[in-house]
Specification:
The complex is a heterodimer.
Chain A (H helix, E strand, L loop, with lengths): L3 H10 L2 H23 L11 H15 L8 H5 L5 H24 L3 H4 L1 H22 L5 H14 L6 H6 L9 H21 L16
Helix pairs in contact in A: 2-3, 2-5, 3-5, 3-7, 3-8, 5-7, 5-10, 7-8, 7-10
Chain B lengths: L10 E10 L2 E11 L2 E6 L6 H8 L7 E6 L2 E2 L3 H9 L1 E4 L11 H11 L7 H11 L15 H13 L5 E5 L7 H14 L4 E5 L3 H7 L2 E6 L2 E7 H7 L9 H17 L1
Parallel strand pairs in B: 3-8, 3-9, 6-7, 7-8
Antiparallel strand pairs in B: 1-2, 1-4, 4-5, 9-10
Helix pairs in contact in B: 3-4, 3-5, 4-5, 8-9
Classes of the chains: A mainly alpha, B alpha/beta.
């Protein structure tokens, strides 16, 4: 049984309060932004929700990225705690919190705000971030998701389903099955890799690392 | 020389090989350590940190056998038992700026699975031993370099380790703190196996009973401090007997390789 005290210290060590506050802010912005965009005359229907549906989960996953690594991965890894289990729980809890909060913002009228697409994009972005943490370390884990989603958003494909359902999964309507498959594959692969290897310890520098002179 | 796996050795390494990519850092290393304070000397790049990282179970050996506390590190259940009895302080360590010193040490007490009821006492004891009890409620980011180092030592000893690995622990300590630290080392070495890597040979001379010397990824000397001093009686350069021993052994090892 995990002690509550250990859990509290661990959450603080991983800067969970910042993450939670950030997710709250993103959800509020998504709600306000969604309302505003839906009432604009120059967007025709579903197109209005794309900025919110792509950017809000991306920001949520970006906030999760720094929590994926400790201040000293090496010190933590030499401890007996069953880390793979903790890492798995960490990613799944993070994805649930982001997805749940954003869906709350969008569920009021899901067809207007794209609540299901918000969930799908959360799962995909969290998978990308978790996978990138293994390769790049927690500090840079946001890069892959950010780059990919922004590129897809900028490309703005008009095609629905087909090849676009696969490569442009973040901007597809939630009814496109292939976009869900891609997002879920990303989540499973990224989470499995992170569970197995954890965030890359990487270069030891930055404001949180004590450097010898 | 035959290398036997003795039952009393805390650390028993045979044929260890470690590399990063193509670069081989340690090759064919055999080492046995018993309880007591052991100094690990060697020039920069000799593989001291790599050896300590392997013994801390954070770097994986390519080849060779590593037994710690009479158990093999490749067995997962054994590894968890070993880690509970292991203390480790890396050369530079990242800390949690918002934690107080007490929280930092307590966090590691939990991570090292110190039994719940013993945690508060273990934390106070560790802080007391490094002389940080009066600064226990200061935030980590407000500590000076020497105090951070002592907080690092406190987290390494909080679980009362049987095997304590310290990578250059005296860096950043002032002379008085180093004297206190050496006294702490001798006290810890009474019933634990303590391995200290350092560049400061005077630390070895006064605190360590035994010395191992690494050069170019190989163990070139292992023996008592007196034996190292004796090696420098004729030849070797340096200002103290132990420094002369150090340089004489290194020179001898390098001449042999050519």
């Amino acid at each position: 049984m995990v002690s509550g005290r250990l859990l509290r210290l661990h959450l603080r060590a991983r800067r969970a309060p910042t993450f939670l506050a950030g997710v709250g802010v993103v959800a509020v912005l998504a709600w306000i932004g969604g309302n505003w965009l839906a009432s604009r005359p120059y967007f025709d229907g579903p197109a209005a929700r794309i900025p919110v549906v792509t950017l809000a989960p991306l920001l949520g996953a970006t906030l999760l990225a720094p929590t994926l690594g400790g201040a000293d991965e090496e010190l933590e890894r030499g401890t007996p705690l069953p880390w793979p289990r903790w890492r798995l729980g960490h990613v799944l809890l993070g994805a649930t919190l982001i997805g749940g909060t954003l869906m709350l913002a969008g569920l009021r009228t899901p067809e207007v705000f794209g609540a299901y697409a918000l969930l799908r994009n959360t799962l995909g972005c969290v998978g990308l971030v978790a996978g990138a943490a293994v390769l790049l370390g927690a500090r840079l884990a946001w890069v892959a998701a950010f780059g990919y989603v922004c590129a897809v958003y900028a490309a703005a494909p008009r095609q629905i389903g087909g090849a676009a359902g696969v490569w442009a999964w973040p901007v597809q309507p939630s009814a496109v099955g292939s976009s869900w498959v891609v997002a879920l594959v990303l989540l499973v692969v990224g989470t499995a890799g992170y569970r197995r290897w954890g965030a890359r310890a990487g270069v030891r520098k930055g404001p949180f690392i004590y450097k010898k002179r | 020389m035959t290398v036997g796996i003795s039952a009393t050795a805390t650390v028993s390494v045979t044929g260890l090989r470690v590399g990063y990519g193509r670069r081989v850092v340690l090759d064919g290393l055999d080492l046995e350590l018993t309880p007591g304070v052991h100094g690990l000397l060697g020039p920069n790049g000799a593989g001291k940190t790599t050896l300590i990282r392997v013994l801390a179970t954070v770097a994986r050996p390519e080849r060779g056998r590593v037994r710690l506390l009479d158990e093999d590190i490749t067995d997962r259940a054994a590894l968890r038992r070993i880690r509970r009895r292991l203390g480790y302080l890396p050369q530079d360590f990242g800390f949690y700026p918002r934690f107080t010193v007490r929280e930092f040490v307590e966090y590691f007490a939990w991570l090292r699975e110190v039994p719940r009821a013993e945690v508060p006492l273990a934390v106070d004891r560790a802080l007391d031993r490094v002389g940080l009890l009066d600064r226990a409620d200061d935030r980590m980011r407000h500590l000076s370099g020497g105090m951070l180092r002592r907080a690092g030592i406190a987290q390494a000893i909080v679980n009362d380790p049987r095997l304590l690995l310290l990578d250059e622990p005296t860096a950043g300590l002032d002379p008085e703190q180093r004297v206190e630290f050496r006294a702490l080392l001798r006290e810890l070495g009474i019933d634990a196996c303590v391995l200290v890597s350092t560049h400061l040979v005077e630390d070895v001379g006064t605190a360590c009973a035994r010395v191992s010397l690494l050069d170019g990824g190989r163990l070139v000397f292992t023996g008592t401090t007196e034996e190292l001093v004796a090696a420098g009686v004729d030849g070797g350069s340096g200002d103290s007997p132990i420094e002369r021993g150090y340089t004489a052994v290194l020179r001898g090892a390098r001449a042999e390789q050519r």
